[in-house]
Amino acid sequence: MTSPVKIWRNQKNTCYLAGKNGKIVSWTIIRSPSSAYKAHAPYPVAIVALDRGIRIFAQIVDSQNKDLRKGQKVVCVIRRILEPDKEGIIPYGIKAKPVE
Amino acid sequence: MDIAVIGAYTTRFGELWGTSPRALAREAVGGALDDAKISKQSIDALYVGNMLSGILGGQEHLGAFFAEELNLSCPAYKVEGACASGGLAVHSAIAGVKSGQYRTVLVLGIEKMTDHTPEDVAIALMSAGSDEERVSGVTFPGLYAILARAHTEAYGTTEKQLASVSVKNHYHASLNPKAHFQKQINLNHVLESPRIADPLKLLDCSPISDGASAVIISQINMNKTKKIGNSENRLIQIIASAVATDTLGLAQRRSLTELSSTKKAGISALREAGISCREIDIAEVHDCFSIAEILAMEDLGFYEKGKAAKAIENGKTSLVSGGAIVVNPSGGLKACGHPAGATGVRQIAEIVEQLRGRCDKRQVKNARFGLAQNVGGSGATAVVHIFKSI
Question: ∠ CA A11-A16-A18 to the nearest 5 degrees?
Answer without folding.
Answer: 90
